[in-house]
Design a protein that fits this description.
Length: 739
């Protein structure tokens, strides 16, 4: 016993020192000073040097403003007419999209009206003719409008003056996840192109590349915040335009950004919206001289069906970057390589849990060494440590080579090595007590993701929210219980059906700039005007509702064909949608331990009630009066009733959306509005006979719009009122008996 006590006392101080060292190392990794970061980044650089990305395809072509082009066409900037010819040539050769890694922020000084004042000896008539010619910028804008062109913008380190005149177009952005305001790379200012060019372009994106602290480009922000607005990068905007996505969706988790989604495409990012580039070596075959394009000496097959980047490799234009694989690579090629890796699904990713994984591995290995030290001798512990080190390197390389994930092994290796050396030279501490202390320290210093995010952005992660006027949408599947009974022996099939249902409905909401609040079984709750302002929130919500119905029709057509092919009974799916606009509170709701970005308010409750009342009225969409007032010029809206929903004392004038005013369905049923208004006037005036006559006429006109069941409801209601007339003072309000 005494020998055991002596042994414990002998190793006590060594274990205490090892514990303090482990805690200090974990804190050092959380702080992440430059030497620690540099070692990690250099390791990732070494990986790319050992196994650079091999480009199996060439989806991107770079039109290079090279030295030969500058020699033939003059110094940059060229007249915009030449750039317009470049766009026209690339478009004629079949380019999918053309993006500029340059910005056209100032008017072209070589335009006739600008340059004429520098000419001497011109007569007044010639001078007047030159001034009457269209500017080079107008010609360039016309060429842009005839093509799919993405104009480049650049971020500024200083605040910039807001553009004069009408607001310039910008890409719509939606956010899905618990963090509504992710910690993006932020710049105070934004240098845009001429408004004439911006309005003509199919998209706009930032080509800003921010090197690491050692001057090497490893990550490129694909979503940034500039001048207070979330803006996409040049490469992301190219993919958005090609994919036909009206907006981009930012996916977030508690650590910040998780990725960016487009239609049928998703790109992972780090917590700040940056994409790690998997670089390959510099490849001249990506480049085509701008001079050769203008002179028609390039085979059209080089451009057909490809993404085109216009940039420069000329040394004098100072657009050379240092990358892990090249000491000097043209900046435009960085964008090209990023596009290639995105399209080939070979982008690198440092997931949000990478830091936690490194901390956990370091802590676990350190604990293992401390635990084994009293049991094993120094040499045995040395060999165990060597095996652990080799395993760390192998796992890290495997995730890079096979999964394109960047998991650092250097910090766990250094931490475990230092702990091993400490134990060797200072002996060991008692096993049982020190394991408890290490676990305690681990719990104390290795914070959960939410706590880490709170430390970085405390103003974003607090309970409560802000007041806003918002539009809220609830949708629910009608008769889902009956449908689910078919799958009672096939729960996996029901899950697949739910995914087939919720995916297009979600896309319809996100494409219309909505934010998904939550899924409640087969129901969806969404809202507009948060976290980003949406001045057309009511119209976007109604457009989303119509698109959801169209998506359900397509899904039912697919399921009908599948059921017929399988000889099974087909049960169509229908949805009810309730939309309402009003004052709400939006923000982080929940408890001190767990909360979500959500919305609360009376307007939310009414939207939910309207959704449930779609069954009673036999329509797919019910909207509140405030929503209807905002969209009646864009959609064919019919008033249905004065409804007092359960739980409320004030009635709400409710409406349904028949269709868009500019499509066939909306225009054909616009005439129904007057007849429907007359029907309601007779109803509220107790002229039951005229009301019935008008209902029958409305039913004929509204049959194709799916309003037949609604008018049948009124027929039954009027007949009951004829049998049991309402009391004097009746104001036409219908009181709902259920939610």
């Amino acid at each position: 016993m005494r020998r055991v006590l002596r042994l414990l006392n002998r190793f006590g101080m060594a274990r205490a020192i090892a514990l303090v060292l482990l805690v200090d190392l974990l804190l050092l990794r959380i702080w992440d000073p430059l030497p620690i970061e540099a070692l990690r980044l250099r390791t990732f650089d070494l990986y790319q040097l050992i196994a650079p990305r091999v480009a199996s395809q060439r989806p991107v072509v770079i039109v290079d403003i090279d030295e030969a082009s500058l020699k033939a066409l003059g110094q940059w900037p060229w007249p915009r007419t030449i750039v317009a010819d470049l766009v026209t040539r690339a478009t004629q050769m079949g380019a999918l999209v053309i993006a500029f890694d340059v910005v056209f922020a100032e008017p072209d000084r070589s335009s006739p009206a600008e340059a004429v004042d520098s000419f001497r000896g011109l007569d007044d008539e010639t001078r007047a003719k030159l001034k009457a010619l269209p500017s080079n910028d107008t010609i360039f804008a016309a060429a842009i409008a005839r093509s799919r062109v993405i104009l480049g913008q650049t971020a500024l380190a200083q605040p910039s003056a807001p553009p004069e005149g009408d607001p310039l177009p910008q890409t719509g952005v939606g956010v899905k996840g618990p963090v509504a305001e992710p910690g993006l790379v932020t710049f105070p200012g934004l240098l845009r192109n001429l408004p004439e060019l911006e309005f003509a372009a199919a998209g706009r994106g930032l080509f800003t590349i921010r090197p690491e602290r050692d001057g090497i480009v490893r990550r490129v922000p694909i979503v940034m915040r500039a001048e207070g607005t979330i803006v996409p990068s040049l490469t992301l905007e190219m993919l958005r335009v090609v994919s036909g996505s009206p907006a981009i969706l930012l996916r977030t988790d508690e650590a910040g950004m998780q990725g960016v989604a487009l239609r049928g495409f998703e790109v992972p990012t780090d917590g700040h919206g940056q994409q790690w580039v998997h670089f390959g070596p510099h490849d001249k075959s990506r480049f085509v001289s701008a001079k050769d394009v203008l002179e028609g000496r390039v085979d059209a097959e080089r451009f057909r069906g490809r993404l085109v980047l216009v940039g420069t490799s000329a040394v004098g234009l100072l657009d050379l970057k240092t990358t892990p694989t090249e000491p000097a690579m043209p900046g435009v090629e960085v964008h090209a390589q990023l596009l290639e890796s995105m399209l080939a699904r070979t982008v690198l990713n440092s997931p949000s849990y990478a830091t936690l994984a490194e901390l956990a591995i370091a802590a676990l290995v350190g604990i293992a060494i401390i635990a084994l030290a009293p049991v094993l001798g120094a040499w045995a512990l040395f060999w165990v440590g060597g095996i652990m080190a080799a395993l760390l390197v192998a796992v890290s390389w495997y995730y890079f080579a096979q999964r394109n994930l960047l998991i650092d092994f250097t910090f766990p290796l250094i931490a475990s090595s230092l702990i091993y050396l400490t134990l060797v030279f200072t002996n060991y501490l008692r096993a049982h007590s020190e394991r408890r202390q290490i676990r305690s320290a681990f719990d104390q210093y290795l914070s959960p993701v939410l706590v880490e995010q709170l430390a970085k952005f405390p103003e974003k992660l607090v309970l409560g929210g802000e007041e806003r006027v918002m539009t809220v949408l609830f949708s629910d599947v009608r008769g889902f219980t009956t449908i689910s009974e078919v799958y009672k022996d096939d729960p996996q099939g029901l899950t697949t059906l739910m995914n087939r249902l919720l995916t297009p409905l979600t896309n319809a909401i996100v494409d219309c700039k909505g934010t998904i609040d939550k899924y409640i079984g087969d129901a969806i709750m969404a809202f507009w005007n948060a976290p980003l302002d949406d001045p057309a929130q009511e119209a976007n919500a109604c457009e989303a509702a119509l698109r959801m119905l169209e998506a359900i029709e397509r899904l039912n057509a697919e399921r009908r064909a599948e059921a017929e092919a399988a000889g099974q009974k087909f049960l169509p799916m229908k949805v009810g949608i309730g939309i309402n606009t009003g004052p709400c509170v939006v923000g982080n709701m929940g408890s001190d331990l767990h909360f979500n970005y959500s919305v609360l308010g009376d307007a939310v409750n009414l939207a939910s009630r309207l959704e449930s009342q779609t069954k009673s009225y036999g329509v797919a969409i019910l909207i509140g009066s405030r929503t209807a007032a905002a969209v009646r010029n864009l959609f064919t809206v019919l008033e249905l009733d004065l409804l007092q929903v359960k739980g409320k004392t004030e009635p709400e004038r409710i409406y349904t959306v028949v269709g868009r005013k500019d499509d066939r369905k909306g225009s054909e049923f616009a005439a129904l509005a007057d007849l429907n208004a007359a029907m309601l006037e007779h109803y509220r005036g107790r002229d039951w006979q005229k009301c019935l006559e008008t209902i029958l006429r409305c039913r004929e006109l509204g049959r194709e719009a799916g309003l037949e069941e609604f008018y049948n409801v009124y027929v039954e209601r009027v007949r009951r009122l004829i049998e049991a007339p309402p009391e004097p003072g009746w104001d036409g309000v219908w009181v709902a008996e259920r939610k």
